[in-house]
């Protein structure tokens, strides 16, 4: 739509004033109707006044146009995915973390979908009591998701079901270990994060950290209430005095943690789900095992990652630098990071909002400062 500016409209009205062509002046009213000024305004000294009330002229401000333009940029955004990963044994004698990055989940398992949009899959699995559970989940969970009849139409239901089915499948094995599990799936502009345990996913939105998961630890009051309602207890900061997490896949060998049949134990494999629609303001997603978050706050990790991407824009190198920095800060656990960028370009520089408060100093204060400087 073409909108004339104020000077052009004023000039056209003056030209109409000087002409002998006397026509009624149409006005656009609220409600979508056209009204007409029936007076012959060419005989008057001024153009017609804007009709008030229900006949008020609609105006388009620059702010409204700018807002519409920004809305279009956000809603028309199509993410361009780049991913990198890095793992390190850290200060532990053995490695229990595993991770996975799959650009097209269906294609990876030879499935043909009607949908043209690929579903990308990323996961970090932090094992305890050995690596058996984390490797099992890494190898089985993606396939269980793809083979679900409702994939990819009902992703939230599919992912929740798949976590529980993978946990049940692991129960049938003779393996004695457990693992936390956090996954991120991206389809078009949709980002879905599923978490069971204390690994974490953090989104950078214009440089501001947005946590996409919640740490499932005994110190969390919501988790504590859930555990106690199911007959469990928190002893000295541990679930039933044994585990440092309240949700995990596996650990069937630990007495009193999980139950079969209708009974439900305090240790749950059910993930918490968070889903958002990505916009142009969303820059990247960091998925890390708890060893990373022991030495990085969510915002600190975002700031560190943005600076490194602005320097070299290499997502894999950035993951390596995060892990190395965690070790420098004294991290003692296994360390795993997966980084998913939504743009080909590096994040833009942050704009620091300066305070608009005017600062001044009194005459007395100025005199005191002068005396201090002069000794």
From TrEMBL:
* Keywords annotated in UniProt: Hydrolase, Magnesium, Manganese, Metal-binding, Protein phosphatase
**InterPro entries xrefs:** PP2C, PP2C_BS, PPM-type-like_dom_sf, PPM-type_phosphatase-like_dom
Highest rank taxon of the organism:
Eukaryota
Entry's Gene Ontology molecular function annotations: metal ion binding; protein serine/threonine phosphatase activity
- What is this enzyme's EC? 3.1.3.16
Pinpoint the PPM-type phosphatase domain residues: 82-342
Entry's CDD domains?
A: PP2Cc
| Cofactor(s) for this UniProt protein | Mn(2+); Mg(2+)
- Catalytic activity, as annotated: O-phospho-L-seryl-[protein] + H2O = L-seryl-[protein] + phosphate; O-phospho-L-threonyl-[protein] + H2O = L-threonyl-[protein] + phosphate
GO CC annotations, alphabetized: cytoplasm; nucleus
Q: Which PANTHER family match?
A: PROTEIN PHOSPHATASE 2C (PTHR13832), PROTEIN PHOSPHATASE 2C 27-RELATED (PTHR13832:SF684)
State the family it belongs to: Belongs to the PP2C family.
Protein name in the entry: protein-serine/threonine phosphatase
Originating species: Durio zibethinus (Durian)
This chain is encoded by the gene named LOC111285456
